[in-house]
Amino acid sequence: xxxxxxxxxxxxxxxxxxxxxxxxxxxVVLLRPDPQVIWKSQRDIFSYPGVNAVxxxxxxxxxGWEFKKPMPQEWNVSYRNLTFKVKPMGFKHxxxxxxxxxxxxxxxxLIQKRRQKGGAVKVLNLFAxxxxxxxxxxxxxxxxxxxxxxxxxxxxxxxxxxxxxIESGIRYIVDDCIKFVRREIRxxxxxxxxxxxxxxxxxxxxxxxxxxxxxxxxxxELCGKLLSDNALFFLINSYTTGLQPTVLHNILKLxxxxxxxxxxAYEVGxxxxxxxxxxxxxGGIYINE
Length: 289
Hints:
Strand order of the largest sheet: 1-16-17-15-12-9-10-11
Helix content: 10-25%
Largest sheet: 8 strands, mixed
Strand content: 25-35%
């Protein structure tokens, strides 16, 4: 099953094909590589007249932006009651993953329902990047601890929170996620929800090696120790190619065994103006409403 983020008004995927996706971010049109797009383009997206910038891969790895038309260095896009800053950055990124609106909607609703019953919700967001989930949860009324090893991304998360009208309720931490979780366990701290968006491969600030196929299960197991007795949800996002949603389902069910609730897993995607869905990764979630 694929869940598509079809609630956007200021973002859309215009067309796909030949390894690229053509996107409209409010008034700016970008053409970026996408490893999932292995089908042939149904139109000449490389000659699309409105393209502002194209990201070209390099044969040596990485790549760079080619700016074709005047455009702002950075600008804002909104989703429902949330606003985010967008900027073409290294490795083809823009600072926002619009497909994650699928998960923002689900977790926001869960938080709002718990809050309406009079319960507080404390969320831990790990590998939290520029804070899409952080901002969404905080806007819904949760207290959020935002953790990422990249200082610049944490600063951008703070900007996104302020753009969305959030001035308090978020604690920003620049740290290695595994080390932070271990310290929180020693401190006896508990959370009502955990969100994580782990990389496929990476190194922490101290050179710590992360390979998702080796580290994800023990890390989810570790994070399970931080959940409160009446924990609301545990969400895993993954962009690792080939990692099936069922893998996330199984990891959650094994690591959180003994907890009653719903376990679900799914593909995450974006609708396109061509009438197809663009797959953008996988999600797995445990819910205890």
